[in-house]
Amino acid sequence: MKTIPNFDRIGEENAFAVLARANALAAQGRDIINLGIGQPDFRTPDHIAEAAIQAIKDGHHGYTAATGIPVLREAVSADLHKRYGVEVSPDSVMIMPGGKPTMFMSILMFGQPGVEIMYPDPGFPIYRSMIEYTGATPVPIPIREENGFAFSAEETLALVNDKTRLIIINSPANPTGGVTPKAEVDKFVAGLEAWPEVAVMSDEIYDQLIYDGEKHVTLLNYPSIRDRLILLNGWSKTYAMTGWRLGYAIWPGKLYDYARKLSVNLHSCVNAPTQYAGLAALTGPQDAVAHMRAEFDKRRKVVVEGLNKLPGVSCIMPKGAFYAFPNVKATGWKAKPLANALLDETGVALIGGPDFGVLGEGYIRVSYANSTENILKALGRMGDFLVSRKAA
Ligand code: PLP
């Protein structure tokens, strides 16, 4: 069979390959500590799981509207109002099977040969993968350690031109844990006034995982770009629901109907019991969210302190999400061989920075969504390894 060119361009998320390799090693009896995959190690809170079970018992087994059950769309709108004081009509809320489908659809809508789509580098690998799949030109927005891994409005705006159709931004960020300060977002939005044809996709999936008393700045709070803003969010990270596949998008204007049609063509709807679980998550007690955030916060400090004691490693304190992104340049190792050797030789699974973009070289991503005990054990193994092994 002839090759299909678009599929030669589509990429992947190496975190899943590392997870498969870590699981295969564990199945052989190896003691593996997984600091690779980005998902909370907590169980979904009981009242959320119970709501899904009850929904099945109540007969919610059929298709729902492609856009989601109305009561859940209303709950998303109310939740955004409560947390950010922002007005979002339930008619612009679409329930999606996870966070990823929103990036897939929005890049598919704008991407085609001849246009440019901007995305953070280092950043979530699916952005670039999907941009390349559509034939659009990927234009990386540099995310720099010396900037605390926040994006720079000035550097970003300098890259916008007549071909730019979509800018993807992500704060709090994967893989760096960087958080963009309000002043920088203000500058970015003000600069966009000169580019009314450029849409923005703001990936705010980690909005509730932010530390040191900082407040998340949602792009929804900027009226001047609301008619061209796509918001990506969901339940995966906030409520420990990665495997449920539940997210939501806010689509502006006619993009809502395009996304609805794509949903009808693709998945019909999100499974009904999961939508009821999502409703319980938003309308029920939020103490589990506060508890998980407090735990991640403690581990964040443990992991950064431990990483900074390793030879050749330095790590700035991440302000959000559940990732540390230490600089490993002074170890003499390239990041990917280091991540591979750490898994093979010490059983610690992590992700090499280049899996998140060219500017990820010299860094590794350490997910601290694991117990403090495991984090300390992993740091011990990494320390022994770096002392005894020469760079490959
Ligand atoms: N956006 C970012 C920045 C992420 O890190 C992830 C998951 O790792 C997603 C979106 C996807 O979330 P979901 O699992 O809900 O599809």
Per-chain topology:
Blueprint: H1 5-9, H2 14-27, E1 33-34, H3 46-57, H4 70-84, E2 93-96, H5 100-110, E3 116-121, H6 125-134, E4 137-142, H7 153-157, E5 164-170, H8 182-192, E6 199-203, E7 229-234, E8 247-250, H9 255-266, H10 272-283, H11 287-308, E9 323-324, H12 335-346, E10 348-349, E11 351-352, E12 364-367, H13 372-388
Parallel strand pairs: 1-10, 3-4, 3-5, 5-6, 6-7
Antiparallel strand pairs: 2-8, 7-8, 9-12, 11-12
Pyridoxal-5'-phosphate binds at residues 38, 98-100, 124, 170, 174, 203, 205, 234, 236, 242, 247.
- Taken in chain order, the helices and strands follow as HHEHHEHEHEHEHEEEHHHEHEEEH
Bound small molecules, which ones?
pyridoxal-5'-phosphate
- For the record, what is the CATH homologous superfamily label of the largest domain? Type I PLP-dependent aspartate aminotransferase-like (Major domain)
- The side-by-side strand order for the widest beta sheet comes to 2-8-7-6-5-3-4
The assigned CATH architecture of the largest domain is: 3-Layer(aba) Sandwich
Structural features, described:
With 392 residues, the chain is of the alpha/beta class. It has two domains: 5-44 and 287-388, Alpha-Beta Complex (Aspartate Aminotransferase, domain 1), CATH 3.90.1150; 62-283, Aspartate Aminotransferase, domain 2 (3-Layer(aba) Sandwich). Helix content is 40%, strand content 13%. The protein has 13 helices and twelve strands. It has helices at 5-9, 14-27, 46-57, 70-84, 100-110, 125-134, 153-157, 182-192, 255-266, 272-283, 287-308, 335-346, 372-388, and strands at residues 33-34, 93-96, 116-121, 137-142, 164-170, 199-203, 229-234, 247-250, 323-324, 348-349, 351-352, 364-367. The strands form three sheets. Strands 2-8-7-6-5-3-4 form a seven-stranded mixed beta sheet, sandwiched between helices. β3, α6 (125-134) and β4 (137-142) form a beta-alpha-beta unit. α4 packs parallel to α10 and α11 (287-308) runs parallel beside α13 (372-388). The protein starts with a helix and ends with a helix. The chain binds pyridoxal-5'-phosphate. Pyridoxal-5'-phosphate (PLP) is lined by residues 38, 98-100, 124, 170, 174, 203, 205, 234, 236, 242, 247. Pyridoxal-5'-phosphate binds at residues 38, 98-100, 124, 170, 174, 203, 205, 234, 236, 242, 247.
